[in-house]
Amino acid sequence: MRIFVWVLRLVIFAVLVAFAAQNHVPVTLKWFGQEWQAPLAVVLLATALVGILLGLSFTVGTLVRQRWTLSRLRRRLEATERVSESSDRTLPPV
Predict the structure, then answer these.
(1) Which of 19, 57, 62, 8 has its CA nearest to residue 41?
(2) Helix 40-90 and helix 2-22: axis angle, to 10°?
(3) CA–CA separation, 33 vs 66, rounded Å?
(4) What is the C-alpha separation between 53 and 75, in angstroms, rounded?
(5) Helix, strand, or coil here: 34?
(6) Distance (Å, rounded) from C-alpha 52 to C-alpha 59?
(7) Measured between alpha carbons, how far is residue 80 from residues 66, 75, 93 in Å?
(8) What keywords sit in the KW lines (predicted)?
(9) How would you write the pLDDT of the chain (94 residues) with one tens digit per residue?
(10) What 3-state class would DSSP assign to 50?
(11) Cα angle at 46 between 37 and 7, to 5 degrees?
């Protein structure tokens, strides 16, 4: 499985390098009256990275809330188990 992952990474890297080599023509970006020029591959890579970072930032809140809920439920389960164990000891043997 590790070999497959490394081969997949190598293929993706090769595809990105080939894409960047073939799309080195500068493009002009206009945003709020500002103009920038950068190679097309750089613009697309930067856009993809911004999208990835935005996606991750939107999931952080959900992950934190899920971990908090899981922690709360674990504490509740442990408390219930302690109460159950102590009540089992106080019952007379049958």
Answers:
(1) 19
(2) 150
(3) 42
(4) 33
(5) strand
(6) 11
(7) 21, 9, 22
(8) Cell membrane, Membrane, Transmembrane, Transmembrane helix
(9) 889 999 999 998 899 888 888 888 899 989 899 999 998 888 888 898 999 999 999 999 999 999 999 999 999 999 998 888 777 666 566 5
(10) helix
(11) 130
Spatial separation of the C-alpha atoms in residues 22 and 40, rounded to whole Å = 10
Run of H or E including 91: none
pTM over 0.90: no
Tell me how far apart the alpha carbons of residues 76 and 50 are, in angstroms, rounded to a whole number. 40
Length of the chain: 94
Please give the single-letter amino acid code of residue 2.
R
Could you give the CA distance from residue 10 to residue 4 in angstroms, rounded to a whole number?
10
**Token pair of 21, please?**
């080599």
Q: Where are the alpha helices (DSSP H) in 23-39?
A: none
Contact residues for 35 (Cβ-Cβ < 8 A; gap 6+): 28, 29
